[in-house]
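Office hours follow-up: a student asked to see two folded examples consecutively, so here they are.
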Amino acid sequence: MDNLEELHKSLLEILDDFDTFCKESNIEYSLAYGTLLGAVRHKGFIPWDDDLDVMMTRENYNKFLSLFKNDEKYTLQKEQVDYPLYFSKLRKNKTTFIENIKYRKPYRNIHQGIFIDIFPVDKVSKNSISRLLQTFFSNILISQSLFLRGYQTKNVFKHLFMFASALFIPCRKAMFKFIEKFNLNTDYDYYCSFFGETKKILINRDWMNLLERREFNGGGYTCMTNPEKYLVLAYGDWKKLPSEEERIAKLHARIFDLQKSYEEFLK
């Protein structure tokens, strides 16, 4: 078994435990992004993919963050508390997945075990100006978070925007509150994953509020309804496989180990 197969097996174990916890706690989620694409197109992992993503409405997301307690097996890396970005990670203890990231203080010694990403989706304002501000503020917050994390890029525009956004760090809380305040609305049509991979895609409210179980690597996990419609919006012709050259199975980890804790490599 190669590293990617081992990683997929470990990620599936995390997903199994996450799914069990959510069912027992009456928390709803959906597979997300490439993981959702894998469920629909491959009935499992995209063979060359090395991560696993889920998404939740903000209400379910906050409920998960409040109810899940760290234990011997897992550590919940909460957004803006244990991790500088605006989504969370469920990390498996006593494992290692150290990426090529030079974290800034105070994140240099954060948990770096194998993980699944957990993304919130927020209600979108029906007011066009407020909707634009939600998107604009989320872009600034993402850039600020990447700056704080120590993200490096050769793209000059991204580099300048990231440093410019750092000037607004004192406004972080106000911008975030503006984005999420619309979750109190009962009159809305769409959700958006403002802090995720498909942050420009509007997700029909019924797709996230009416969920279904889909096959994924032999098991059944929760997905939004009409995932095919979402995948068209997110990826275009999602049924078409990328070229052979693009189907490269590669771990985005500098150090990967299923038996040793990341702490042993940070000494």
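And the second, which I mentioned at the end of office hours:
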Amino acid sequence: MVLIAPGARHMQLRRSGGQYQAAVQDGPPFNRHTPSVDVLFRSAAECAGEDVLAIILTGTGDDGARGMRALHEGGAGTIARARASCVVFGMPKEAIKLGAVDEVLPFDRVAGAILRFDARSERPDGRTEQVRLRPGGRVRRATDRRGFRSVED
């Protein structure tokens, strides 16, 4: 599932019971940004840790770099887009400089890394969860051990 924070509002990941939820809220700029990637990544580090795969693709400045380091230190998977395939390399470069990145990948290898990360978990019955792409790139998936609900976009 992909969620995008609306302009001028922060998004945070929260856990309620066994489910993850995205919360969108008003707030002052953090690190000069609203929404801020650091706010999202830090909240994900606090409640989900190793269940997260964080990716910085492009952007100016250093927003997201410290949050990505918190995720990295909490066991999350972290990826930055390689300079050669970036239009703007500021955000990935800062995350790499902080030592917050497991892999630096060209854009055309990011989707494969996402699929590998998703396939790493097994369902409670021992079978690997299947991710099926539907027409138009939509995803259908069942609840997994990490608490993600069935989603059909």
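Two things to take away from it. The chain has four helices and eight strands. Helices lie at 37-47, 65-73, 90-97, 110-119.
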